[in-house]
Amino acid sequence: MTDLARLETQVHDAVLRATVIGEIDMSNAAALETRLLELAAGQRGLVMDLTQVSFMDSAGVRLLDHLVEERGPDAPIRVVATPSGPVRFALRVCGFRDDLLADDVETAMTDLAGL
Q1: How far is residue 82's CA from residue 101's CA, in Å, rounded to a whole number?
Q2: Which of 14, 52, 61, 69 is buried deepest, with most CB atoms within 10 A?
Q3: Residues 98-104, mean pLDDT to the nearest whole number
């Protein structure tokens, strides 16, 4: 992806699990968003695993907002972020929707598999 972030993906039961490893900032958020929208096209759900993201600025929050908007209510998304980590802190500060957050990947995948 970039020097700052690596993207790993898996599909299970029409739910794309996208794991970002590294940092998300203004230098890579747009490219990451484009790639995620391409990969998620046609998938019923999207789980964004951000548990291995060490830094995320407002560009990363905008990326998630855009994904939610672009996918719409018929293609739900869950964002997995460590409860006490830097990503969850950034999301709370920016007022990201709590109902889209999950503490672990298994819970997020189960939530979307049932929809």
Answers
A1: 10
A2: 61
A3: 95
Instruction: Enumerate domains of the chain plus CATH numbers.
Output: 5-113 (3.30.750.24)
pTM, entire model? 0.93
Reported as a pLDDT band with limits 50, 70 and 90, residue 89 is very high
Residue 14 sits at the vertex; the CA angle it makes with 62 and 87, to the nearest 5 degrees, is 30
* Cα 50 to Cα 29: distance, rounded to the nearest angstrom: 13
The β-bridge relationship of strands 45-56 and 5-12 is unpaired
Q: What would the mean pLDDT of 6-27 be, rounded to a whole number?
A: 96
Alpha carbon dihedral 90, 12, 105, 36, in 10-degree steps, equals: -10
